[in-house]
Amino acid sequence: MADSRFAVGLGLALLAGVALALAWAVAALLSVDRAGDFETTYAAALPAARVGDLVAGLALIAAGGLAATQPRTRILGVLSLLAGLAWFGADWEGAESAQPILRSFGAVVTPFTLVFVFHLVLAAPDGRVRSSAARVGVVAAYVVVGCVTVARAVLRDPLLDLYCWRNCSDNSFLVHADAGIANALDQVLLWSALAIALGLIVFAWRRLVGATGPGRRAMLPVIGPALLVGASEATYAITLLRTPLEDPDRAGFAAIFIARSASYTMLALGLAWTVLSVSRTRARLTRLANDLGEAPQPGKLRDTLAAALSDPSIDVLYPRGGSGELIDADGHVAEPPAADRAVARITRGDRPLAVVLHDPALVNEPELGRALGSAAKLSVENEALRAEALAQLRALQASRSRIVETADAARRRLERDLHDGAQQRLLALSYDLRLARASAAGESDEELVSILHAAAAETEAALEELRDLAHGIYPAILTEAGLAPAVATLADEAPIPVELGTLPPERFPAPVERTAYVVVDEAIADAAGRGATWLGVRLGRDADRLVVATEDDGAPRDGRLVHVADRVGALGGSFNLADTDLRAEIPCE
Fold it and tell me: What are the tens digits of pLDDT across the range 415-436?
């Protein structure tokens, strides 16, 4: 209830402000009609200037009223209204039939036109001045222009001003006349206007160049005309510094005024376009909320938001439990948001549901939260639960992969220990036995020769069995030569004929090669166990996956080769069995 009363009060205040601004503008123009014999305003000197003066001021007021109706652009609207009021200050200053206090007030507010526009452009598109340098520039502009205009108002006597042309008789704020200081303040005011105009150009250009594509499109309707405002105001200030006596009848001054009027008009139109764009974005978000509430599509929230906001760079992340990590829709852990990205949090009560990273020029957090109603937030919550489930699945796969890696490392160490330890000792023993047998043969000890020969044969058999055991624990050829030679060796040593297709010559990551080797090895053993007379093996790369496929003529399978499926699944692959066929797809990345 209180919020609704506040909204009504705010709306009435804005309506009253716009009405007063329009009344101020109309009264100023009517006062121009009653000017004396000498032109004291551009509107009185030239019909084109009169039209430009009217259109520029009213456009600023109208655009300000429109922008003030939207929460996101309300500050911009107030600044545009103030700029429109200050724009007509020059007409009040030159209105000879107006009251002295109004003419004096017009002289004070006129220099603030550029200041209000400077603030407006730096705060576009959502009313916030983000960079510290821009904030310093805005504050400095207000302070310098405010101090100079106030000091000028209390010290300037129009009768002593050599370059007076708008108001040469009235100054209701005069306290102590000092022509020297007043003239110096006029110079300071002109140099300040030049600095603000150049600053406007620099800041506007930097924002335009530094923005992303969607942000640049959102800011261009305001930033583009702002560059023209800065250029025309800089030209105006430089001209007055070179030619202090301003004369609306001179073609150069008249052209500059028309250029200024046109640039301010385009700025007002750009602001109005921005406000309408914000309204369209809110409408798209409302439609998005309805779509999400009626027919949510799992995993598609990011694409849907990107289309609604016209921002292809948008990211939707989800908080993962109480870890503080953010994950994407596929369950991958995401990097922390970059400093140049806006962060909008979608919550349900006090519980965070999602974090939307987007271009700061497009939409702000409250708008996004309001646009996504309860039905849409239910869809977002479902999306978050899906992302959490995928993250847990990836964590499980990573855990299984680590287990496989650990087991393979243990097998590799055991194979090396057998090769470097027991196998070497058996080789040495076999050599010693052969030497002893030769020595016994030289002494004609047939019985000892027979014993040593039998011992040497047993040693050779044990050595061969140890080699087979070490090879079964971990095939050294796989590490040294790669998958293709290792599979070829398996085929040569298989108990049944194995027909090999074309083998991929390249090397794959070690876990991928070991898993593919295990698949082929187990397929050979399984086919032989089912009475097959041959086995066909094909290996090949399909995009980012290594595919292992086998077929045989054995009896139908009655087992599932669970340990092989687990090993393939540990790498995020797929494993499919038929009666006599097998297919494993192993990710290579």
Answer: 565 556 666 666 666 666 677 7
